Amino acid sequence: MNRKPVNSIDDVIAILDSIIQESIKNEDTLGYFAALYQRVTIEVKEGIQTNRFDDDPRMEKLDVIFAKRYIDAYYDWHAGRPVSLSWEKAFQQAENKQLLVIQHLLLGMNAHINLDLGIAAAEVSDTDTIGSLENDFKQINEILSSLVNEVQENLSSIWPFLRKILSLSGKIDNYVVDFSMKIARDGAWKFATEFVLYKHSDRPEQLSIRDQKVARIEQIVTRPGKWIQFIIWIIRLTEKGTVAEKTEKLTR
Fold it and tell me: What is the pTM of this model?
């Protein structure tokens, strides 16, 4: 797999498109997360163009560093090179045919938000400037939050009875919002403010500790409580479409 250098947000969007198209061609479930992530990146780009952020150049730098961690992990995995434990767990589950689209998305969001976002935030800051990043960091969170409803609308088209199930029980809805929007984002900021304090020589060890902690969340996503498992079982019975068709729906 060949790819272009990642130097700008446009490069990120183009490479994500390549991953999406490759995933559609190969019926690869890893395309689910790439489709969602491309939409987030496009929103960030539009935010930069409309001066949504306090520091637009810094935001683009953050976005590129952040995205590159995912892109590198994706290509390294396919090339048989080692990746972080968090991404390894997510990529391994791509072959799990029992998982729903939403579970594949959560696995990607866990590795990328809980691990990668905090590292990227620390890389564009230092101990004196990390505080000034918080507002823009939260702006990214708002962009992610704004896409939740859109994603669930698309998922409802994949699962005909999802909307009816959600009207009876908000469990899946809360599962998505609580996990990806609150736990992951808040944890990422806390990790960023701690990680930036470490000397560069100490960061690999701290990154490893964080990586192991984040990787354990994979079990929560793939083996949730009995009530969630029951809801997932019902949804799985009605999930329709090929991997390629589901990926394409998530790009809309």
Answer: 0.85
Across the chain, mean pLDDT equals: 83
pLDDT single digits (tens) 11-62 = 999 999 999 999 999 999 999 999 989 998 999 999 999 999 999 999 999 9
Query: Above 80 in pLDDT, residue 186?
Result: no
C-alpha to C-alpha distance for 32 and 210, rounded to whole angstroms: 25
- The DSSP letter of residue 98 is T
In contact, 179 and 188? CB cutoff 8 Å:
no
Q: Can you tell me whether residue 22 is helix, strand or coil?
A: helix
What gap in Å lies between CA 109 and CA 116, rounded to an integer? 10
Q: Are 37 and 117 in contact (CB under 8 A)?
A: no
Q: Is 167 exposed, middle or buried (0-12, 13-18, 19+ CB in 10 A)?
A: exposed
Q: Are 118 and 84 in contact (CB under 8 A)?
A: no
* Three state DSSP letters for 209-234: HHHHHHHCCHHHHHCCCHHHHHHHHH
How many other CB atoms are found less than 10 A from the CB of residue 185? 22
| 63/37 Cα distance (integer angstroms) | 11
